[in-house]
Design brief:
By secondary structure, the protein is of the alpha/beta class. The chain contains ten helices and eight strands. Strands 1, 2, 3, 4, 5, 6, 7 and 8 form an eight-stranded mixed beta sheet that branches. The two termini are 31 Å apart. The relative contact order is 0.15. Bound molecules: S-adenosylmethionine (SAM).
Length: 250
Amino acid sequence: MSSHDRDLAQAFDKQAPRFERAPAQTDPAALARLVAFAAFSPGASVLDAGCGPGLVAEAFLEAGHAVHGVDLSEEMVRRARARCGRFGGRARFERGSVLELAAGSFDAALSRFVLHHVPDPEAFVAAQVSRVRSGGAVLLCDHTTDPAPAAAAWHQELERGRDRTHTRNLTAGELVDLLGRAGLERLAATEEPFDLDFDEWFDRGSPNLPKEEVRRRVLGGSARGFAPVLRADGGVTLRCWRALIRGVKP
Ligand SMILES: C[S@@+](CC[C@H](N)C(=O)[O-])C[C@H]1O[C@@H](n2cnc3c(N)ncnc32)[C@H](O)[C@@H]1O
């Protein structure tokens, strides 16, 4: 395991309890839209790359699919197994890297909110595409950044200040191109707004910078995908965008 992956595993072992309850991750309407947009074939076998505590897996299992989840974090895998135990043999979870998975063939693959943690997005997507059968679908969901480089750089500094495992958010266009470069066809994309509460977001991170400094810097700028709003109660809402991109393996 690389030192980045070891650090990720440790950070997410610690973050797991808060992550599993976070409003942006648990929102049932957003999970339902993810399942609908994926449009996987009925009863598909699905690779969930970076499955976390199994929130996404659970939504796809409820929709009738079989899910194989993989995650670097032992605690995340433990939670995913507990959450999805009621689905019996349709739900399987293993600890490890998506990049080191044994060969296998799935009808579909997906990842949600993982790409901005990986050092090599192309390798991460390629690992999923290589394990999907011809005609199968790959779904990528992640929060996005501003196409303007200066705004994206400001956003990235704050994400890294709040979480040392953060690598880079891509723009919605870069996410589409990533799946195109991976050889996928019939690309479809949509984006959805979502809000984060600054305190809730910061407190479940693995910070590099003090909270007060990040808050001050957040209020000093704005980016598409990360726009702060100071509320009347003194709290800060971050207005964000997430993209859902789907492609088919020829
Ligand atoms: C922000 S969480 C998202 C969890 C889940 N996909 C969700 O949306 O609820 C990111 C997860 O990706 C995992 N992860 C990151 N890189 C990975 C890799 N190369 N292989 C397996 N898991 C990875 C982390 O351990 C972490 O649990």
